[in-house]
Write a structure and sequence with these properties.
single chain, 446 residues, alpha+beta, Outer membrane efflux proteins (OEP), 4-stranded antiparallel beta sheet, 11 helices, 4 strands, 13% strand
Length: 446
């Protein structure tokens, strides 16, 4: 009954009929891949980052240009000796094709290497966005499941309390109980009604959060199978996960590339002290009228080929200032790398503890659930023989439903901690979602 209530409420709020199979985590993730605006922005940033390599390569390749002019000339010629002045009006035009090839430019070589590093950074940032999408989708998915559970628990508790309230009213009417029992049951009923409304509001919010990522209202989601049993990850040692995180965490990898880029930037600015050598060639064709009556215009054609050497001597201290700036940025990148490593270690430790402690917590809550169910059965029996009160029954019911809610929360937290642990190690992928899918019920229920 609890499962049917949960599915009914979820379908009502999502405006969809119940399917024979619920949408699983991989399906939701694949729906988010083309629809999530955050990931779409990251993908566009990655595409922009790929252009850094051809931009760096351009500094090593030939540069060609064509220029042309066409002008009208109006010239007055006046002799200082007082001779007769002359005036000429004529057209002139020219066209030039020029090609240059850098032969030695250390700055351009370093810029090309920087382009490779920037592409690597862009790749790492896209990997980060991919992991982030998996975690955000998973968090939203299990938030919906927990909200759905809370509605089901609140409604089941409301049903149980309403039965106690009706019984209290009957007992009061026949004189077997005081009005206090009725007031106590009514107070509990009103409280759980408020909790039910809050849970219904929460499931709507959680559904909207998931819909924001996949671009549509989600279907009924498959929940964790009732036989789901959490287990330790492939590496059972915290130190092994920490060591893996220090070396393969994607944030660490991006920070390492950022440090390499900063070191290259220092070298590129220092390279500005070196001379440059370029080969160049040009072809120019020009023509002009004579500008005098009966005169003959001229046409010229010239070809030039040569080498150009440029030696920088002094630029007002600009180069030295840029080197100092780059050195400061290098130190910043080095500290960012150390921070990334420490954060990766912390994430690995905290999520490993979340996984290992989550297993113990799930087992303890499973035992607590059985104990609370037995306690409720005993309390109900005690009420029937007169050694327990209705308040005792209500308290036992409250403990039972709290244990159910805590167990559901612990199971979801375990799954999320496992995914975050893999993310800390830099190995979170769709394959991990496939593993989680194996833990889901295939009929959309739990």
């Amino acid at each position: 009954m609890r499962h049917r209530l949960a599915l009914t409420v979820s379908a009502c709020f999502m405006g969809l009929s119940l399917p024979s199979f619920g949408a699983d985590l991989v399906e939701i993730y694949r729906s988010a891949l083309p629809s999530d605006p955050v990931f779409a922005a990251a993908r566009s940033a990655w595409q922009a980052g790929q252009e850094k390599l051809p931009q760096g390569l351009a500094g090593l390749l030939p540069q060609a240009s064509i220029s042309a002019t066409d002008q009208f000339n109006d010239r007055d010629l006046i002799y200082r000796s007082g001779g007769t002045a002359s005036q000429s009006k004529y057209n002139s035009n020219s066209a030039t094709v020029s090609v240059s090839q850098p032969l030695y430019r250390k700055q351009n070589l370093t810029a090309y290497e920087q382009g490779k590093t920037q592409v690597a950074i862009a790749n790492g940032q896209l990997d980060l966005a991919s992991q982030d999408l998996i975690l955000r989708v998973s968090q939203a998915y299990f938030d919906v499941l927990l909200a759905r559970d809370n509605v089901a628990f609140a409604q089941a508790q409301k049903t149980a309390i309403s039965e106690q309230l009706a019984q209290a009213k009957r007992n009061f009417e026949v004189g077997n109980a005081t009005i206090t029992d009725t007031h106590e049951a009514q107070a509990r009923f009103d409280l759980v009604t408020a909790q039910e409304l809050a849970a219904i509001n929460d499931i709507e919010i959680k559904n909207r959060t998931l819909a924001q990522m996949i671009g549509k209202q989600p279907q009924v989601l498959s929940g964790l199978d009732s036989q789901f049993a959490p287990r330790l990850p492939e590496l059972t040692s915290m130190d092994a996960w920490v060591e893996r995180a220090r070396s393969t965490n994607i944030n660490v990898r991006v920070a390492e590339d950022a440090l390499a880029l900063a070191v290259q930037e220092v070298r590129r600015n220092r390279d500005a002290h070196y001379p440059t050598v370029d080969a160049f060639a040009s072809v120019n064709k020009a023509g002009a009228g004579s500008g005098i009556s009966g005169g003959i215009g001229t046409d010229t054609r010239s070809k030039v080929i040569g080498l150009q050497l440029a030696i920088p001597l002094y630029q007002g201290g600009l180069v030295d200032s840029r080197v100092r700036e780059a050195l400061a940025n290098e130190e910043q990148a080095r500290q960012n790398l150390e921070n990334a490593r420490r954060n990766a270690e912390l994430a690995a430790r905290s999520n490993y503890l979340g996984v290992s402690n989550g297993i113990a917590q799930v087992r303890a809550l499973e035992a607590a659930l059985l104990s609370n169910q037995s306690a409720l059965d005993s309390t109900r029996l005690g009420q029937q023989v007169g050694v327990r009160t209705q308040v005792d029954v209500l308290n036992a019911q409250q403990l039972l439903f709290s244990a159910r809610r805590d167990l559901a929360q612990a199971r979801y937290n375990y799954v999320l901690s496992l995914l975050k642990l893999n993310a800390a190690a830099g190995k979170l992928s769709e394959a991990d979602l496939q593993q989680v899918n194996a833990w889901l019920a295939r009929d959309g229920q739990k």
